[in-house]
Amino acid sequence: MNQVPAIKLNNGTLMPQLGFGVWQVPDDEAERAVGTALEAGYRSIDTAAIYRNERGTGKAIAAAGVPREELFVTTKLWNGPSRTWRRDDVLRAFDDSLAKLGLTHIDLYLIHWPRPMREDFLTIWKTFEEIAASGRARAVGVSNFRPADLERLGAVSPLVPAVNQIELHPLFPQEELRALHARLGITTEAWSPLGQGKELLTLPAVTEVAAKHGRSAAQVVLRWHLQLGNVVIPKSVTPSRIRENMDVFGFELVAADMAALNALGRGPSARRIGPDPAVFDV
Predict the structure, then answer these.
(1) CA 199 → CA 170, 189, 196, distances in Å?
(2) Which residues face 139 on adjacent strands?
(3) Tens digits of per-residue pLDDT, 245-279?
(4) pTM to 2 decimals?
């Protein structure tokens, strides 16, 4: 039985709180990794057009034999800087992702980056409204959007993003943005929930809590996310770690544990690891 709790999005769609991400996983390896994740009990899979592994992800989904209604598949529009995105471009990109995944609908479709120096994310979002209304995406949302970007969307559209997928981990807890999400009814989803590399997972504040609970550092950080209410999508291609990251529901962090991890976001190591959405336009 799948023990992962579900988060109700602002349109009533249920999304598993713990999923499996495939960023930087080659297409052929994604097929194996997603297959392992589905065997381990994951039912939410997060990919993107720019990851170039939608085909492998789709093959794994088809081979797994899991009923489609039990799965939650997210992909993202790569609104790259090579063009000004118009309605037909967005619809064509969406159809291309559907075809590569071998699906008839997407559970969550996201704008990958705001690219605020350009104006076209507002046009893109209007097309996302159309995709959502068609039922071919059960929910639509954004990724890496700042408060200013969400405000611009709200000024032109009544459709509030169901999700904002952002860099979020104990070294970059995004407290202000999470508070705004709560006010607007947007679900917070964390990419790179374990940071990148081993730095976060070797900090004493993390390892001491892990030792206290007899858990790995990664499990403790994932548990921190879950207790904050974040959706998380840890990535691994190692079968044992894929299973380990799912095994985070048999313990609970106490207030002192949460406080120790929360303090990391105010400490000397606190920082953004990924690109700054205010200037990213690659």
Answers:
(1) 11, 21, 7
(2) 108
(3) 999 999 999 999 999 999 999 988 899 999 999 99
(4) 0.97
- The CA–CA distances, whole Å, from 178 to 15, 36, 168, 190, 282 equal 18, 31, 10, 11, 26
Please state, in angstroms and rounded to a whole number, the distance separating the CA atoms of residues 189 and 83.
28
| Sequence letter at residue 25 | V
Residue entry with tokens 């959405």: 277
> 52 in the Ramachandran plot: left (φ > 0), alpha (ψ -120 to 50) or beta?
left
Nearest to 111 by CA among 66, 74, 63: 74
Instruction: Indicate the helix (H) or strand (E) that contains 207.
Output: helix 204-213
Two tokens, residue 187: 């679900």
42 is catalytic: no
Active-site choice (20, 42, 51, 224):
51
34 alpha carbon, distance to own chain's centre: 15
Query: Band of the pLDDT at 222, cuts 50, 70, 90?
Result: very high
Tens digit of pLDDT for each residue in 34-81?
999 999 999 999 999 999 999 999 999 999 999 999 999 999 999 987
Q: State which H helix or E strand residue 261 sits in.
A: helix 255-264
Q: What is the rounded distance in angstroms from the CA atom of residue 126 to the CA atom of residue 103?
A: 23
The encoded tokens of residue 86 equal 């118009």
Instruction: Give the pLDDT confidence of 86-115 residue by residue, as tens digits.
Output: 999 999 999 999 999 999 999 999 999 999
